[in-house]
Write a structure and sequence with these properties.
The chain has one domain. The chain starts with 5 loop residues before the first strand and ends with a helix. A four-stranded parallel sheet has the order 1-2-3-4. Helix 4 links the parallel strand 3 and strand 4. The protein is about 55% helix and about 10% strand. Helix 1 crosses helix 2, helix 1 crosses helix 3 and helix 2 crosses helix 3. The protein is α/β, with parallel strands linked by helices. Pfam families: NRDD.
Length: about 160
């Protein structure tokens, strides 16, 4: 499922614990300054969502502005799509939205990192699955940017 070079599979699940720690930090700040548990949680989620987006955008921009000694962009791959908690879903959504938005003023399509979105029954394949909306975003991204590549988990495993 990976193309070689520098690859990270299930990046959404890999980064989620760090996003959760970020949320806890924002929640602690909110508890100090904002009244009401629901308002505190909403604030922490909003700040965490922005931090996730900014971090994933930075990763994409860093990869696409880094060059090897012979002038090539490093071959990188990111696999994702199976995480179902809020943090994992936000990471997935950010990866896809950033790719849809494009790079720079010209809104160029980024070639790297290669995006590999995994579709799995019970996760995102059917309209009743918890991540079906993310799959729809992945398909929108693929139609606009030719990425991500789609991996059918049930056919491989």
């Amino acid at each position: 499922s990976q193309y070689g070079g520098c690859s990270a599979d299930r990046i959404d699940e890999l980064l989620a614990p760090f996003a959760e720690r970020n949320y806890e930090k924002h929640l602690a700040d909110a508890q100090e300054w904002i009244e009401g548990e629901e308002r505190q949680k909403a604030f922490a989620r909003k700040k965490t969502k922005k931090d996730i987006f900014d971090a994933m955008q930075s990763l994409e921009y860093e990869i696409n502005t880094l060059f090897t000694s012979n002038g090539q962009t490093p071959f990188t791959s990111l696999g994702f799509g199976l995480g179902t908690n809020w943090f994992e879903r936000e990471i997935q959504r950010a990866i896809l939205q950033i790719r849809i938005n494009g790079l720079g003023i010209e809104k160029r399509t980024a070639i790297f990192p290669k995006l590999i979105f995994t579709i799995k029954r019970g996760v995102n394949a059917q309209p009743t699955d918890p991540n079906y909306d993310i799959k729809q975003l992945a398909l929108e991204c693929a139609t606009k940017r030719m990425y991500p590549d789609v991996l059918n988990y049930d056919k491989i495993v």
